[in-house]
Please model this.
Amino acid sequence: MNRLLLKRVWLGFLCASTLLLAGEQFSMSQADKKMYEELKENNPADMNVEEGMELFEELGEEGALAKFLDVNQTQLPSYIAGFPRYIAKMGNVVGLDQVLQAMQVEQGKAKDALSSESMFSMLAYVKSFANDEAINIDIKANKEMEASYALGEKLYSQARGYRGLSCNSCHALAGSILRTQTLPELGEQNTGGTWPAYRMTLSSLVTLQERSRTCMRDAGQAPLPLGSKEMVALEVYISNLAKNNKHAVEVPGLKR
Ligand code: HEC
Model:
């Protein structure tokens, strides 16, 4: 059997075997659903956001961020709703967390690792400035954004790892069920606008990039490093899917 066919059969088996039993209601157990409803009223990640606020104060608050990004403070929310962006002085298309790191460096402070809880919290706080703003990432803004989008699109549909799976192998099958979990179509469900989010299964705040790394591991792929060109490109691609679906920023999200 060729590799592609094998992959189809493997996925088909996993989906079919659970689809028989499963409707939408099986995507979470009843207990999980109950917890989800409760936590929606009172997202535990609000505590991270508060912690992020305190950490961000040390960097000089909104004024300092607006200055670093060279935008008017009143434009900051809508500007944040357009990340990842090409930031000329950083010479790269970057996530908002990398901007926070660059500010730390510029101020002579130790930079928080992209994987640190403090950075996740700060990112959630700063991204929440953009809540209710329409996602407005511009993949045509410049050649760097064009290249990043093209790379993200390629990586999204490129098979990687020993199982021969791409992101698209699963995430294009929106609405079907894999081992009791509904496979999300990432544009439709506003993945680009709802992370950082609280993950109930981990009882912690997680970023979009970190969540993607979990999928890479599950799919038998070596996880891409946080903040790498490739990982940022995937975030660009996923953010653009959310934009195409006319979503707004809603953080912190609440996820299974
Ligand atoms: C083997 C199937 C599979 C593959 C391959 C896969 N995913 Fe997933 N992914 C899932 C499932 C299932 C969920 C939802 C799980 C849940 O409900 O918690 C998910 C959820 C996600 C989420 C969270 C969506 C949200 O808004 O809650 C992101 C982000 C994500 N995947 C990114 C990726 C990326 C990027 C890739 C490719 C590198 C990828 N996934 C490959 C099965 C897969």
Observations:
- The domain at 3-255 is CATH 1.10.760.10 (Cytochrome Bc1 Complex; Chain D, domain 2).
- The chain has a mean pLDDT of 88.
- Residues 24 and 130 are 31 Å apart (CA to CA).
- Residues 165, 167, 169-171, 178, 181, 183-184, 186, 189, 191, 194, 208, 211-212, 215-216, 218-219, 234, 255-256 surround heme C (CB under 6 Å).
